[in-house]
Amino acid sequence: MVTICRAHGLRIVIFLDDHEPAHVHVFGDGQVKINLIGENRAPELVWAEGMKHGDIQRAMQIVAERQHEFLAKWKDIHG
Length: 79
Hints:
The protein has 79 residues and is of the alpha+beta class. Helix content is 32%, strand content 34%. Pfam families: DUF4160.
């Protein structure tokens, strides 16, 4: 697992042996999985477990703001 960002008490990671579609996992007081390209080419929440609504929104905002950077990191890791 590679930590690609830390912000607002959240840690955003990409697993080295993960699968398509391109996505990140965000850990805080729970965790979420966010596809980097969902409908309308925007990031899309796949699932959330044990994370407060405000933290989920914060995670989505971070991923949306840094979507291109995170996609580039996904491609660097997974080809």
